[in-house]
Amino acid sequence: MTGTMFEKAWAEHVVKPLGGGEDLVWIDRHFTHDLSGPFSLKSLQEHGLALRRPDLTIAVVDHGVSTETGRSEASTPASEKLMPLYRDLTSQYGVRLFSIDDERQGIVHVVGPELGLCQPGAFIVCGDSHTCTQGGVGAIAWGIGSTEVVQVLATQTLIVLRPKTMLVRIDGATSPGVGAKDLILALIAKYGADGGSGHAIEYAGTAVEALSIEGRMTLCNLTVEFGARIGFVAPDEKTFDYLMDRPWSPRGEAWTAASAHWRWLRSDPGATYDKWIELDAGAVAPQISWGTSPAHTVAIDGVAPDPAEAPDAATAEAWRAALEYMALRPGARLAGLRVQNVFIGSCTNSRFEDLERAAEVVRGRRVAEGVRAWVVPGSQSVKRQAEAAGLRDVFVQAGFRWREPGCSMCVSMNGEKVPPGERCVSTSNRNFVGRQGPGARTHLASPETAAASAIEGRIADARSYADGSRHA
Amino acid sequence: MPEIAPLRRIVSKAVPLPLPNIDTDIITPMERIMDGKFVEFAFEALRFDADGAPRPGCALDDPAYRDAEILIAGANFGCGSSRETAVWAVKGLGFKAVISESFGDIFSSNCFRNGIVPVVLPAAAITALLDAAQSGETLTLDIERRVVEQEGGDRYGFEIPPLRRTALLEGLDDLQLSLRLADEITTFESRDRAERPWAQGVAMESERPLGTARKPE
Question: Based on the domain organization, do A204 and A334 belong to the same domain?
Fold first, then answer.
């Protein structure tokens, strides 16, 4: 059989074909977080249903929890309300819970791969759209709604319309100062926020192969911002090296069998996809978003567009609304805009490598006056690793706040927000209206760009820091 | 779990909302999810200005569209977060169908699970239907025949997976459907445990204390 990895993985998860392209599929792992988890478990209980496989659901705490040093489970109103219910229900149902007192706590999509809970070809779901992040280790992972969560809890299956397949080839060498975040933002800017709708995306090409596993997770993270639920990179030697000896990774003979199977899962030469698109990595500059959709993104030296030049009336109206919300005039340069907030964190860019890249820019410099700059590590493990490597000191000495792991300023349900009318250069994934708080103006960027912007107090091009000449 | 009423045919005016990329943070902002007012303040940024005053001309609040059960939206409607509150809010406003050129995949899936029909039509059809909606036409959306019809008789066929169509017509939910397949699930589970032991059996029983693992640090 000649097939794509997605087709092979799909075939081995079909419990029963239901006709018309829909199948009942087996789910290997289900993650819950402190926003979706408590209500879903409660709903299960109210329906008098058993949790079919408590061992395959893992509960984490990230969305509602405070990231303030010295926090407790009652530090935010959301968390104070949800945590007692979450603790009670996970305990009743026998589900593992990694709360803030656990050394494994962190953002769900950071924790899953680092604990080896995610495997190539595994079907993984979570009531969170950025579950696709886990495609960085080759997992077929996607976000689901709360009704689907209850079904997974009760049956360990879902009824899914099999998406079409899409190959996104990114070839070429990236320029210095350009990373995975820039590649995926450039892809979305080029093909639109619905460029991947209805498809499961396999990312391939020399630029993708060159990325570390952490970089691949960043790439896959914004798949949902590209309109698709699922995006993954087929496993290679880097993947196996990353997964080997993780706490839940298979060992010994099980590892040998598993890794042989994962190799077999890779798309066969000559496999065909429903759609195939390309991006030239060499042509990508650092990216910055100007508007209220991740597709509203330009190169760091670019300008906000003019609605008069929009391709159609609806787009012109969307651009006008976005420019108004972002307080930008058509043709305004992005670089140089004053910023009041810088957020380095979220499931997009809060892993060790992200912090390392940002720290390279920050080292020996100071955060500009009037800028509130935060680093929120993605997990306790990332935090420990970064502290051991001295990165905490680099950030703190520069004037950054170094915080506890969680979603923080990416989702404004934990009290950590950007004040109305202020700008934030954020390494997160959504610049939607109100996403970082009512009236907040978000500019999406890479960790390097965020770090350089914190230093200058303006949206800045981190490439001028690469050789250490500037302000050094 | 949502209660799902059988849905066969909708005859109604349609609210035009041509803006592309209306995300689920716009439909139900997190602030409104937390304070429980996500239906009342659905599409808040489109309906109200920063001071909370109603935006004049917003079709969602136009009395001409009172009781409309169809929403015609710009491309990529419901993109973004998986929050099902977005569908509950659309349903709470009285809509039973949303027609767009494309949907966020999770939103679309959530629609079906709540008895709302997401209809995908090509750009030309959307343009015609937006015009019809703006001039106050009554549209007929027939799920059984999979067709949207204008007053003048212009009609647009759409695709919908057969199982989804049956579920809408009969008001079935996925949980009922899959609980009926419990035997098949059990058979699959035991076979899969043997074939991919690392995925369910061994892996989940082999938890090691974090301190003894090589990684993470």
Answer: no
Q: Is residue A281 part of a domain?
A: no
**Residue B216 Cα, gap to closest chain A Cα (Å):** 6
Smallest CA–CA separation between A435 and chain B, in Å?
7
In a domain, B217, yes or no: no
d(CA A161, CA A258): 27
Contacts of A142 (CB under 8 A, 6+ apart): A124, A125, A131, A132, A229, A230, B106
Report the DSSP beta bridge partners of residue A314: none
The domain total for chain B is 2
pLDDT confidence of B207, banded at 50, 70, 90? low
CA distance to partner chain B, nearest, from residue A470 (Å)? 33
A347: domain CATH number is 3.30.499.10
Count of all residues that appear for chain A in the document: 472
Is the Cβ pair B21, A293 closer than 8 Å? yes
Rounded mean pLDDT, A16-31:
96
Whether B1 sits inside 8 A of A56 (CB atoms) is: no
Whether residue B153 is found in the same domain as residue B88: yes
Q: Which of A222, A257, A276 is the last residue of a domain?
A: A276
Candidate from B177, B188, B200 with C-beta closest to A15 = B188
Average pLDDT in chain A? 96
Domain end (from A246, A276, A306): A276
User: Nearest-CA distance from A25 to chain B in Å?
Assistant: 9
pLDDT in tens, A66-90: 999 999 999 999 899 999 999 999 9
Q: What is the pLDDT of residues B140-194, one digit of tens each?
A: 999 999 999 999 999 999 999 999 999 999 999 999 889 899 999 999 999 999 9
How far apart (Å, rounded) are the C-alpha atoms in residues B215 and A382?
11
B73 and B37 in a common domain: yes
Put simply, the answer to whether A413 touches B18 (Cβ < 8 Å) is no
Distance CA A232, CA A241 (A): 17
- Pair A161, A22: CB distance under 8 Å: yes
Contact A126, A134 (CB under 8 A): no
**What letter does residue A300 receive in the DSSP assignment?**
T
Query: If contacts are CB pairs under 8 Å, which of residues 208-267 in chain A contact chain B?
Result: 224-225, 227-229, 244-251, 254-255, 257-258, 261
B206 in contact with A, Cβ within 8 Å: yes
**pTM, 2 dp:** 0.96
Q: How do residues A396-434 score in pLDDT, each as one tens digit?
A: 999 999 999 999 999 988 999 999 999 999 999 999 999
Burial level of B190, CB count in 10 A (0-12/13-18/19+)? exposed
Range of the domain at A113: 5-276
Q: Do B189 and A26 touch (CB under 8 A)?
A: yes
Determine the pLDDT at residue A472.
Answer: 37
Domain count of the fold of chain A: 2
Residue A470 lies in a domain: no
B199 touches chain A (CB under 8 A): yes
Same domain, B95 and B145: yes
Confidence band for A467, pLDDT divided at 50, 70 and 90:
low
- The answer to whether residues B148 and B205 belong to one domain is no
Instruction: Write the ipTM.
Output: 0.94
Residues A64 and A171 in one domain: yes
- pLDDT for A1 equals 61
Tell whether B142 is covered by a domain: yes
In a domain, B34, yes or no: yes
Give the C-alpha separation, A403 to A388, whole Å: 15
